[in-house]
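This part of the workshop introduces the protein records we will be handling. An example says more than a description, so a record of this kind follows.
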Amino acid sequence: MKIFVIELYEDDPEKSTGRKMVRFGFAKYTEKPRGIVLNPLSEEVISIDDVEIVNKYGLSVIDSSWNKSDAKFYARFMSRFSRRLPLLFAGNPINYAKPYKLSSLEAVSASLYILNFIDISLKLLSLYKWGKTFYDLNKELLESYRGKHKDEIIEIEKSFLKEEPQQ
């Protein structure tokens, strides 16, 4: 399993989940996107349909600060291999329970879970105390998305959004 981090050096080095994945040997740095690229602007959702590409070329995450990145920023990384994650809630203390605002580690872990790489997904989450919080918050969703095709994931996401009370 090849995991790549496109490091943009915007986060505090001590808090960068992308750097921690590299430090613990789960990922390598890259300057250019490789394989499936996790991009919150992508219209296409990650799904089991992407497992062959991930197996062959890997999975890339853009490690940047949510506070310093906007739509124009993420547009630079759009390609036919860009994918977004379906609805999930952050478990990290900075964006706790915010929908879609995941750390790099949460995004990679969730992607791997959806692609049926559960063992490595959970090992990644074990790098942080709040990793279990992320899993507990999203267990039902992750299980719903796991191993599903993109159309199925979009339907699950839509049905969950309809069920959620508006705040």
